[in-house]
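How it folds:
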Amino acid sequence: MSEHVNKKQRKHKRGSGKDRVLAAYVDILLADGVAAATLDEVARQAEISKGGLLHHFPSKEDLNAGLMDLLVELNEADIERTVAQGDDLISAYLTSSSIAQDEYSSVFMAALKLAGSNIPEVDRTLQQVLQSWHQTLLEHLPDPALAKIVHLIGDGLYLHAIVGSNPGNGVQELIQALEELSEHKTDCGEDA
């Protein structure tokens, strides 16, 4: 949990009531799980009245929808940041995938805690987030198979990062091997 945004830092950061509620919901899901994430507990940790919470999120379903909207928003920003790093998308994507110490990662982990809990919107949103990365890679890499390989390797690196298992120096070797594969595929395509 130490790799996720520090709970106390976020709790005392003032923001809109809606932002504080979502931050508290993420914190509770990460620290204590789905069962502990009652509306009363979310309001308490957000330092907002229950009425204030219900103003922003009239139901638990609305709170879950708000969390999914935040996940999509953060995912889109992460994609934009990664693509903006230039021509070397493989390196940018895999390097980004090996780091999980930001708000996006905390929100993603909170959404994973809700996965499989009979909330179809959660599963759909997680699928949407994964698919948006795959689509981005397809748009920027020369071969669909290479895009899928890069995507799955990135998912593996991210899984290791979010559970605190550092993939170490192997990331650079993976990047180099994939870039060589990409160059080889491009060279073979030009010869045909």
The chain is about 75% helix and 0% strand.
